[in-house]
Design a protein that fits this description.
The protein has about 180 residues and is of the alpha/beta class. It has a single domain, classed as Rossmann fold (3-Layer(aba) Sandwich). Helices cover about 35% and strands about 20% of the residues. Helix 5 links the parallel strand 4 and strand 5. About 40% of the residues are buried.
Length: about 180
């Protein structure tokens, strides 16, 4: 059964390692017959949540910027894939800001049931992505019937496009996308 997959790349760097892995995931999902939409936060205006909770009543944020359209895409997708560089053992600020701005989904009739994560870090320890996973699990816990499915995590990458030197990780991202 074909799924609607939304991949959100939160890195602002050109040729970012997390975005390269996300594109491999996308290739695998497309090859498996899924409809894939790729959104990058580059050149997007996403302001901080004000905590006013108006979105809980109206279903939409009062701040008019690019987060509204992205949140609508999240709401209408079956699968959400977050891709982020690991900064100081946590998700990127852009990712956290967008998650906060997606607060309107809490009371919405959302479609997504599966969430995946792609991370890259300078640290090559397998534990480098754990705080990011925990943060994402906190968001997922707010939605009934939504599950965290998998994380593709690459380490020992600092410079742009270094992930291309790890073909086994590119293959893992592709296969994970193919098998959603």
């Amino acid at each position: 059964m074909s799924k609607k997959v939304l991949i959100i790349s939160t890195s602002l760097r050109n040729n970012s390692n997390s975005e390269i892995l996300a594109k491999e995931f996308a290739k695998g999902a497309e090859q498996a017959g899924h409809e894939v939409e790729f959104v990058t936060l580059k050149d997007k205006e996403i302001k901080f949540c004000k905590g006013c909770l108006a979105c809980q009543k109206t279903g939409s944020c009062v701040i008019k910027d690019d987060a509204i359209a992205i949140t609508e895409k999240i709401k209408n997708s079956d699968v959400i894939v977050w891709a982020t560089p690991v900064y100081y053992y946590e998700m990127s600020g852009q990712m956290k800001t967008l998650i906060d701005r997606a607060n309107s989904l809490f009371t919405a009739d959302y479609k997504f049931k599966e969430v995946y994560l792609i991370t890259t870090a300078a640290d090559d320890a397998k534990t480098a992505a754990e705080p990011v996973i925990n943060g994402l699990r906190g968001w997922i816990a707010c939605f009934d019937g939504v599950k965290f499915c998998a994380c593709v995590s690459g380490g020992n990458v600092t410079n742009a496009a270094e992930i291309n030197n790890q073909p086994q990780l590119l293959e893992q991202a592709f296969e994970t996308g193919k098998n959603i």
